[in-house]
Amino acid sequence: MKVFMTGGSGFVGMNITRQLIARGDEVTVLTRKVSKDRRPPNGVSFLEGDPTREGPWQEQAAEHNVFINLAGASIFRRWTGKAKQEIRDSRLLTTRNLVAALEGRKGLDTVLLSTSAVGYYGFHGDEFLDETSPSGEDFLALLAGDWEGEALRAEPFGVRVLLCRFGIVLGRTGGALSQMVPLFRKGLGSALGNGSQWFSWIHEQDLVNIFLFLMDQKGLSGSVNFTAPEPVTNREFTKALGKALGKPTFLPAVPGFVLRMIKGEFGSVLLQGQRVIPKKLLDAGFRFQFPTIEHALADLMD
Fold it and tell me: Which of 24, 31, 98, 172 is most buried (most C-beta within 10 Å)?
């Protein structure tokens, strides 16, 4: 397969790329600046272009048959008005421009795997959520809905669209753990708020495996939850991470008002969560390599 990828320089994109070239696929990574000193591995090429702007890159993109859309500015910061606009634009404009490039593939076998997030569902307490659950009304839910709407514009071109609703990705070199582990190693790990909020997560290897599975399962389309089958509460996750690192987690929980004071609106998001189940994957026969948080953290902290 010839794979075109936005956001490929992040740890998720790099992990996917390694697996794709290992199985013989060709990968083109869109990047804003191609360094002359950066030599890609065999099977990978870099294409210069800004995904939030139209450009010549779109014509070259249309030469591929698989599209993986990972681009998006980080949400892990204080949400000022400017930050919110950057978060929205980085996702919506990139997806809109990528879909425009797919118009030239009418009648050709094409699949678009476009990132979204479990934030789509909003906050539902202890309720189990699957791909049929309704969307929420907070900033992240509305953002995810608009983001998915841009990706679905590719369907009239005959493109098979998969909306990849990520949980929290746990990996060795990036994502949430890169921010948590240094504190936990110092014995400063603790729950957030009352610790009862749900934490829907996914091991980085399972995430890559899901992408490969969906690329090959031509009968699947629409929304797919990229989460492990056993979500945990924030308090359960805190204890599991402390145990995996051999560090205590007896400190008092971080009060909710402190998080809100430091992180603003994003702090409120950390105090709530979603209990998401990957029903569509389980029904399709996908087998998770790391279904439990204990198994996942034991591997990642090894």
Answer: 98
Q: Which fold has domain 2-170+202-227?
A: Rossmann fold (3.40.50)
pLDDT in tens, 139-185: 999 999 999 999 999 999 999 999 999 999 999 988 889 889 999 99
The pTM (predicted TM-score) of the whole model is: 0.94
User: What's the length of the chain?
Assistant: 302
Return the sign of the alpha-carbon dihedral for residues 70, 76, 77, 81. positive
The string of pLDDT tens digits covering residues 180-202 is: 999 999 999 999 999 999 999 99
CA distances from 214 to 67, 101, 207, 210 (A): 12, 21, 11, 6
* Beta carbons of 268 and 260 less than 8 angstroms apart: yes
Q: Where are the domains of the chain?
A: 2-170+202-227
**Category of 275 on φ-ψ map: left (φ > 0), alpha (ψ -120 to 50) or beta:** beta
Sign of CA dihedral 168, 172, 175, 178: positive
